[in-house]
Amino acid sequence: MQSEKDKMLSGKLYKASDAMLTAERLHAKELVFDFNNQRPAEAAARIQIIRQLFGRTGTNFLIEPPFHCDYGYNIFAGDNFYVNYNCVILDCAKVTIGNNVFIAPNVSIFTAGHPINASTRNAEWEYAFPVTIGNDVWIGGNTVINPGVTIGDNVVIGSGSVVTKDIPADSVAAGNPCKVLRPINEADALYYFKQHRINNVD
Length: 202
What we know:
- By secondary structure, the protein is an alpha/beta fold.
- The protein is built from 4 helices and 21 strands.
- The chain has a single domain (4-197), classed as Hexapeptide repeat proteins (UDP N-Acetylglucosamine Acyltransferase, domain 1, 3 Solenoid), CATH 2.160.10.10.
- Helix content is 20%, strand content 31%.
- The strands form 5 sheets. Strands 2-5-8-13-16-18-19 form a 7-stranded mixed beta sheet.
- Helix 2 (19-36) runs antiparallel to helix 3 (43-53).
- It is globular, with a radius of gyration of 18 Å.
- 28% of the residues are buried.
- The mean pLDDT is 96.
């Protein structure tokens, strides 16, 4: 017989009120509390807490407090990872984040969902589908990434987007729902914003 945790991790309906899952969320909340309440100069202590919390951390990462997550152990982050203020990751399923990923303020990544049918939802059943973010991705502020989404390599997600479907590699995408606006191309290496040219960049 599968545990509620096994169901959660395999994309089946499960009950988050399960004693094991409740205890694991409490453990994560304790670590998150410690992380969010370190003094600003205590960068080394914050890094150590994230290493305890996440399933995997790469080299050279920085997460600005406040940060919140459900379990922590389902978050697998790559190298050169930056997260700005007020990030929420509901990691009931695996969240895989590649190398060189920059996340702007107020970004939410949700693997968790609830059934549309009210009677099923009211019976406290829920589900979780994994989220994957590729390498070299920039996610703009106030973006929401929904369960089951994959964002490819070399993607820019515009501010305020609600990402409900996969976004292919080498794309600029934005909107609610988020849609591809154009491909990223060689001309983008010449400009940092619209007509503003990149000059004297080492």
